[in-house]
Amino acid sequence: MAFGRILLEALLTLVHIISDRLLELFLGWYLGPHKRVATPISVDQQVILTKSAVELAHQIRERKLKSYDIVKAYCERIEIVNRELNAVVDGPFTEALQQAQQIDKKLAANEYTEKELEALPFLGVPFTTKDSTAVAGKLHTLGLRARKDVRAQEDAECVRLMKQSGAIIIATSNVPEVNKWIESRNMLIGCTNNPYDLRRSVGGSSGGEGALITACCTGFGLGTDIGGSIRIPAFNCGVFGHKPSSGAINMAGCTFRTGKEKETMVAVGPMTRYASDLRPIMKVLLEPGLSSVLQLDKKVDMKRLRYFYMPNNGMRQCNPINRETERVMYKVRKHFENLSGQEVQLAKVPETQLTSKMWRYWMTQEPANFNQLLGNGVELNPFVELFKKLLGQSDYSMAAIYSLIDGVLPKEKEKMIRAATKKCKQFLHEVLGDDGVLFFHSSPRTAPFHYYPLVKFMDFSYFSLFNVLRLPATQVPMGLDANGMPLGIQVVSNHNNDRLCLAVAEELERTFGGWVAPFPLKK
What we know:
Shape: globular
Largest sheet: 11 strands, mixed
Helix content: 40-55%
Number of strands: 15
Strand content: 5-15%
């Protein structure tokens, strides 16, 4: 019996490896030669574009840089590289330059008091957000042809808070239809391309954000995450992304959420090139009253934390962890063992082999109805849409139709899934406590070619587990693989212990370098 199981697992692993190689060979041939995003047009522009959001804000306040010059540089960058990336839905916005000019004028005239400047931590810094997150007066399509001319009436709460902090919105970015896919493709805008290799996926659903941030088209971005939608694009595009603890940030205005939903896996969070930007942005976005709970400014002593790791999720449907990805985990473990003087312990988290089933079940408990969202209020028949797709007449991508079909397949066993979720969550709650951190692979492999997820898509379960558990998780870039694509790792902590994730992300950035530009840097 045991031998038979081992043989079956070995055969499944072999099938995964062979199918992965065949898909890579075929899609690499089909999509043509490798090409990456263009380098900034000058050293001066590069210096501005590659600064952190915090540094930009500081230099604007100190009058060392003008907000206008920064916004102009990012807008020009978008105009040049979006032809290759196809990441922008609306923008760059001309009024952003006017807002920047007004800020510069007031700063030059010393019209801001010190108290006002303290309340404006991101004064004059440009940012972007995904199309599904409402920006007043701007396109709000959710990737649907039926919404191609629809504009948002008011800002999502997260956008309002960032504007209130002084930041300037300059564009909105591409998403899969109503955010439910792991590649940012739709029938309205098309497919967004990865800046490291234009043939490869940026991930989803905040894929447009991932592309714009790593290509230096924005100071930072806001994403949402219901099944890895911040962390998958952050991983694929080599940037930082933080999915906060459930309930930490108001969801109002994000994919039609009201902000009053009590039970939901979705969260709003920051996406940045630098780990040092995550914490200040989180402080702006936090729900009133939660600052004292999350204590983001509380110092974290790395040597006193306890560290754990998981080698895989135990799902046979996922690709096996490749060697370069395993090497990342090894380096992380060794670093924190040397730093803390203690072993990074193996965490045998129960029931993770059911991750895809758990996520699928909990998606049915969400307040949003995917079918009606996709139909823009109209109930769609998945088999009619599939037939129309085969005739080339559908308004929806194949990925969206996959999700429609999934909605009519047999449902998961509720009792079993709830029990598995509870067991998994309780284990991590007890093991991590208030001083524990878990390292978990981001994915078994780096960003795949376009269309690959239509054949093999279960690897997203490495991200969706922490939506199911409602735990905070930070995606951290960890250099590039042999193909020049970003590697990474997830840092996870207990509920409301986001500060541990963020502090460990900063330590990893200091040690391993963090973001690597997808273009050659000018000297």
